[in-house]
Amino acid sequence: MFEHYSDRLETVEIDVNTDPARPVDIALYDSFAQPLSDLEEFAMLVGNDRIGQVVIYTWNFDPGVIRDAVQQGVRGYLSKALPARELVTALEAVHAGEMVVSEPPRRTASVAGLDWPGRHEGITDRESEILALITQGKSNAEIAELTYLSPNTVKTYIRSVYSKIEVKSRTQAVLWGVAHGFTPGHRRIDYWRESH
Amino acid sequence: MPTVVTDAIAALPLKEMEASLLRGAILDRVIDMGLVEQDFREAIDIASFLHRTQTRKQRGEMTLVHYIEHPLRNTLRALRYGIVDPDTLISIVLHDTVEDEPEQFSAVIAGHQSTSEHDAREHAFAYLSGRFGPQVEAIVRALSNPLQKHGLSREQKNAAYVEHVAEAIASPHVLVAKFVDFADNALSLHHSADRGYAKRQATKYGPLVPIFAARLEDDDDVRILFGADAVNQMKAQLADNRLAEFATATV
C-alpha cells in the first residue's frame, strides 16, 4: 500500500521472519481479528521505548473503544477506508506530534492496496476477519461482539465465506483457515512484549 | 439401592479415582439408568484385559498408573455430563482397545489368528459389531487413529491427527467420545507433575481447541441427541483450557 510513498515513509514489517533492528517512529496496529478491547496490548506498545507513537488501523469506530485507546496513549485512530495518500498524510501528522482520529468509515468497497489473508481466494476483508476468528475457535456471539456486527450479519458473512472456500461445516472452515495462514501471529505482538 | 458409600463415591473428583472406584461408579450409574449392565461389565472386562500390561502417566503426583483408568475415567465423565446413550458409553470404554492391542483382541477375544495389523483390526471391529452392534463398531472405528505411514515427522503426525479428529467428530456420538478423551488427555494437564509431558501434550492437543469449539458451535444435532446440559458442560470445560499456557511454558 505504501509502495509509492517510499520518499515519505519506510515500512518495517514485523513478522515471524524479520525482526526490526532499530526503533520505529510509529507502530501501526492492525486490528484484524484482534479484540480491540484488549487495552493491555495498546498500553504495552505505548510504553515500549523502541516505539515512538502508536496508531490503530481499524474498521471499528465504536466511540467507547476510541476513547479507551486514546486514554491508553494511542496517538492515531485511523480508518481502513482511507486511501494510501490520506493514510500517509495522517501518519506524518502523528509523527509531527498531532493526534489524528479519522472519520468513521462508511462500509463500502475496500481501498486499493489493502491486503488480508484469503484475498486471492476472493474473500472480502470482512469475511477474512470473520474466518480468522472462526479459526481461533470463537463462537458467533463472540465474533459479533469483537466485530461490532449483529449475530445475523455474522451468520451471513459465514455462509458467504463457506461457499467461497467450498466447505460445508465450521470444523472444515477451521482446517481451511489453519492451512491458509489464518492462525493468529502471536509472535508479532510478543516481539514487542519481550525486552530487547 | 444407594448407600452412604455409593453417594460418597459418586461425589469423588475423577482424578482421585482408581480403576476399582471408577468401575463401581460406572456400574452404579448404569444400573440407576436402567441400561443393560451385562453389556457394560463385558465391555469393561474386555478393555481391562486388553490394556492390562499398559501404563499411563498422569493423575497427580503418581508417576505411572494402569492404563484402564483412562477409558474408565472418560466413561464416567460422559455419564456425569448426563450422556445416557449406551452405544456412545460402551464405545468410550472400548475406544483404545483396537488401536492399542489389535493382535490380542483378534486372537483372544475374537478367536482369530491374524496375519497383519490391518487384518487383526478388522477382526476386532467385526467382533465389536457382532457383540455390541454396528453403531459401537462405527464409533470405535472413528476413535481409532488410522494406521500411519512410516517416516512422518512429529509435526506431520500431529497435523494428520488434527485432520482425522476434525472429520471424525462430524458424528455427534464420536464428538462426545472424542471430547471426553481430549478432556482427559489435554484438559487435565494441571494435575500432571511432569512439565515436559504437559508441554508435549499441549503442543499436540492445542490445535484441537478451535476444532472442538467450531463443532460445538454448530451443535443442533448434539443438543437433540444428548441434551443442552451436556453441550454446555463441554463448552465450559473447553473455554477453561490452559493449553496455550502449557504449550509455551519453559521447561
Can you put this structure into words, describing what you see?
The complex is a heterodimer of chains A (about 200) and B (about 250). By secondary structure, chain A is of the alpha/beta class. Chain A has 2 domains: about 110 residues, Rossmann fold (3-Layer(aba) Sandwich), CATH 3.40.50.2300; about 60 residues, Orthogonal Bundle (Arc Repressor Mutant, subunit A). In chain A, about 40% of the residues lie in helices and about 10% in strands. Chain A contains 8 helices and 4 strands. Chain A has a 4-stranded parallel sheet. In chain A, about 30% of the residues are buried. Chain B is mainly α and about 250 residues long. Chain B has a single domain, classed as Hypothetical protein af1432. Chain B contains 16 helices and 2 strands. Chain B has a two-stranded antiparallel ribbon. In chain B, helix 4 packs antiparallel against helix 5, helix 5 crosses helix 11 and helix 14 packs across helix 15. Chain B is globular. Chains A and B meet through helix 7 of A and helix 10 and helix 13 of B.
Strand content of chain A: 5-15%
As for the CATH topology of the largest domain in chain A, it is Rossmann fold
**Helix/strand/pairing category of chain B:** mainly alpha
User: Which value, in Å, is the CA radius of gyration of chain A?
Assistant: 17 Å
> Number of helical segments of chain B?
16
Give a summary of the structure in a few sentences.
The complex is a heterodimer of chains A (196) and B (251). By secondary structure, chain A is of the alpha/beta class.
Write the layout of secondary structure elements.
The complex is a heterodimer of chains A (196) and B (251).
Chain A: E1 24-30, H1 39-46, E2 51-58, H2 63-71, E3 76-79, H3 84-95, E4 100-101, H4 125-135, H5 140-147, H6 151-165, H7 170-179, H8 186-193
Parallel strand pairs in A: 1-2, 2-3, 3-4
Chain B: H1 4-10, H2 19-32, H3 37-50, E1 55-56, E2 65-66, H4 69-81, H5 86-94, H6 97-100, H7 102-109, H8 117-132, H9 134-143, H10 154-168, H11 172-186, H12 195-205, H13 208-217, H14 220-226, H15 228-239, H16 243-248
Antiparallel strand pairs in B: 1-2
